[in-house]
Structure to design on (201 residues):
């Protein structure tokens, strides 16, 4: 209310000053007129009416704007724009804060990604070494098993060969003895065998 009274006084003061200025201007023009007083007087009166008309129009316009909702409309519009500007400022600050937060999270994610990749590389290297060690151990076991199998096969083949050689030698000796021995030699051998058996009992 106090603001309204203050504004009203300003409007009245401006209107009064304009009227005084117009009157003074008319007076100066009238005083400096000299000759053709009637014509000059009409012109001055016309100018005075025009200035008075303009001043009254300005005063009426200001009063009408103040009394109508135009002032309130522009005030509300100004407040609305101010509120929107404040909201946009807050949103911008929130967006900047969110952007910084996302940048921080992205940097942390990059660090975690590098750590995970390094960990996977280290685990992969360990796993590779373990697989290679297991493969070497398995290869050594297979070679050892193959060596033992080969040794058994060689030993078995050697025993079979010895047996075959002994059998062949015995068969050959039997053939030789059968050809060389006579009936008297055979009787003599049988008698000696019987004597040796009798001695054992």
């Amino acid at each position: 209310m106090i603001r309204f009274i203050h504004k009203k006084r300003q409007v009245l003061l401006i209107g009064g000053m304009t009227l005084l200025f117009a009157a003074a201007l008319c007076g100066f023009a009238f005083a400096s007129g000299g000759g053709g007083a009637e014509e000059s007087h009409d012109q001055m009166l016309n100018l005075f009416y025009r200035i008075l008309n303009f001043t009254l129009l300005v005063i009426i316009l200001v009063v009408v704007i103040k009394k109508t909702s135009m002032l309130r409309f522009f005030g509300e519009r100004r407040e609305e724009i101010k509120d929107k500007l404040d909201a946009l400022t807050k949103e911008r600050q929130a967006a900047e804060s969110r952007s910084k937060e996302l940048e921080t999270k992205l940097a942390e994610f990059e660090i975690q990604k590098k750590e995970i990749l390094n960990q996977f590389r280290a685990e992969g290297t360990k796993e590779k070494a373990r697989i290679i060690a297991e493969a070497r151990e398995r290869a050594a076991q297979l070679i050892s098993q193959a060596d033992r199998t080969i040794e058994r096969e060689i030993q078995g083949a050697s025993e079979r060969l010895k047996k075959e050689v002994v059998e062949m030698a015995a068969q050959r000796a039997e053939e030789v003895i059968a050809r060389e021995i006579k009936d008297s030699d055979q009787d003599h051998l049988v008698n000696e065998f019987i004597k040796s058996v009798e001695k054992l009992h």
Remarks:
- The chain has a mean pLDDT of 80.
- Residues 1-68 form one domain.
- The longest helix spans residues 70-180.
